[in-house]
Amino acid sequence: MVSLQTPVCDFGHGAPEFSLPGVDGRVWSLGECRGEKGLLVMFICNHCPYVKAIRDRIVRDARELKSLDVNSVAIMSNDPSEYPEDSFENMQRVAEEFDFPFPYLLDQTQAVAKAYGAVCTPDFFGYNASLELQYRGRLDESRKQAAAADVRRDLFEAMKQVAETAQGPQQQIPSMGCSIKWLDE
């Protein structure tokens, strides 16, 4: 398992289009996922200990962001042939078990992860209403274990600011997680 950090936010970069199958049986596009005041795109998976440590917090924050008209979407781009826990069937199970309030999509070709420049799980991309990148940081100070319950909610606070001002914070702490498991080419 390789641990990586996300790059610095490329403010204003547009959100790449996508059309991916969801665990709910629908095909979702970028336009169908966006909220009136923004969109949080999350690259996650089922097997990563960094993601497992914060799944409940991701669900909490996505629910609260929805009340601010910021929608969320999760994309799984790992190669499930090497990591069976990341299979589509297991994605469906995890989404149901944690009651994901957002679409959970499969990026089987990994083209979407590459278009976004995703490097790890979790990797968060926060966009404003114009789908311009405003946040590329961590959820909070959790690592392989969840941080204390009262830590600063970096991602939530940043996306709340984006909803209110269309601008993300200038200071952002990178997310850390497991490398995306790329297909053998």
UniProtKB/TrEMBL annotation:
The cross-references to Gene3D superfamilies, in alphabetical order and at most eight, read: Glutaredoxin
Q: Which GO terms describe its molecular function?
A: antioxidant activity; oxidoreductase activity
Looking at the Swiss-Prot or TrEMBL record, what is one Pfam family this protein matches? AhpC-TSA
Q: Where is the Thioredoxin domain?
A: 9-144
- InterPro entries from the UniProt entry: AhpC/TSA, PRX-like1, Thioredoxin-like_sf, Thioredoxin_domain
Taxonomically, the superkingdom here is Bacteria
Signal sequence segment: none
Q: Which CDD domains match?
A: PRX_like1 (cd02969)
Q: Provide the protein name.
A: AhpC/TSA family
